[in-house]
Amino acid sequence: MSKFQYVIAKTPGKSYVEGLTTSNLGKPDYEKLLVQHKAYVEALKKCGVEVTLLSASEEFPDSTFVEDTAVLTSGFAVVTNPGAESRNGEIVEIESALKDFYKKFHYIKSPGTLDGGDILQADNKFYIGISERTNEEGARQLKEILEGEGFEATIIPLQKFFHLKTGIAYLGNNKMVVAGEFVDHPAFESYDKIIITNEDEYSANCIRVNEYVIIPEGYSETKRKINEAGYETIELDMSEVRKQDGGLSCLSLRF
Ligand code: CIR
Questions:
Q1: 185 part of the active site
Q2: Side by side, which strands form the sheet with 105-107?
Q3: Pairwise CA distance, residues 105 & 116, whole Å
Q4: pLDDT digits (tens, 9 = 90+) for 24-59
Q5: pTM higher than 0.90 for the full model?
Q6: Which domains does the chain have, with CATH numbers?
Q7: Ligand 1 centroid to 240 CA: how many Å?
Q8: Ligand 1 — pocket residues by CB below 6 A?
Q9: Spacing of C-alpha 218 from chain mean position
Q10: For 110-166, what is each residue's pLDDT tens digit?
C-alpha cells in the first residue's frame, strides 16, 4: 500500500447539525464535534501526513465529509458529482484545493452521480459501489476512467450499506476489513478477511494511514483483530460524526 503524504480535511461549520442524516441518533453537539474533528486531524498528523485544513462553509452543512467529492490516486484526481443535491456544490472548493497537488483531472458528469464514499482502492484494484448516491452511470464513468489509467475496477451494487466504505476497508497486505453484506461477497473472496460482527459494524469504517489504522473508539474486538493482524491502532471518539451518518474515512481525502 502506497504511503500517504497529504490529507485534505475541512472544519465543520455550525450548519453541520442541519446536515443530511438517516441515523436517528439525535442532533450533534457542535462544540463536541469540533473537539473530535481536531483530534482526527491530530491523529492524521501522527501518521506522518501533511494536513491541508479547509475552513468551514456554512452554506454546505455536510462539507466536512470531503471524501465524497473526489477520488484520488498518485497520478490523477477524479472530481465526483455527489449524488445529494445539497452537497453537489462542494466540489468547487475541493477541485481548487486539489489544483495545488494535481495536474491531471477527470470528472464524473451528469447524469452520472458518484460519492467518493462508494469507492475503495485496494492496490491496483478499485471497487465502486452503486448506492443511493452513486448511480449506474456514475459508476460506469469512473470504471472507464480508471481502466483507461491502467487500474482494474469492479462495480458492486449495494444492498443495505449507505456507502460502500460504510462496511469495508482495505489495510494493505491483502487484508480486507469486512462487515455485513461484504463478509461473504464473492468480489472479496481472495482477500484475508478481518470480519466485523454486526454489533460492531460501525467500526468497519476504519482507515489505514501509513503505520497506523485509525478506528472508532469503543470497539475492543475490532481493535484486537486489527492489532492481531499486525497493525498499530489509534482510537477516536466519533459520536458526533456518526450522528450525521459519517465515519473515519469520510472526513478526509488521503493521497
Ligand atoms: C451525507 O449524508 O452525505 C453526510 N451526512 C454523510 C456523508 C458520509 N460520507 C461518507 O460516508 N463517505
A1: no
A2: 70-72, 77-79, 105-107
A3: 15
A4: 999 999 999 999 999 999 999 999 999 999 999 999
A5: yes
A6: 6-254 (3.75.10.10)
A7: 13
A8: 19-21, 62, 65, 67-68, 84, 87, 117, 163, 166, 244-247, 250
A9: 20
A10: 999 999 999 999 999 999 999 999 999 999 999 999 999 999 999 999 999 999 999
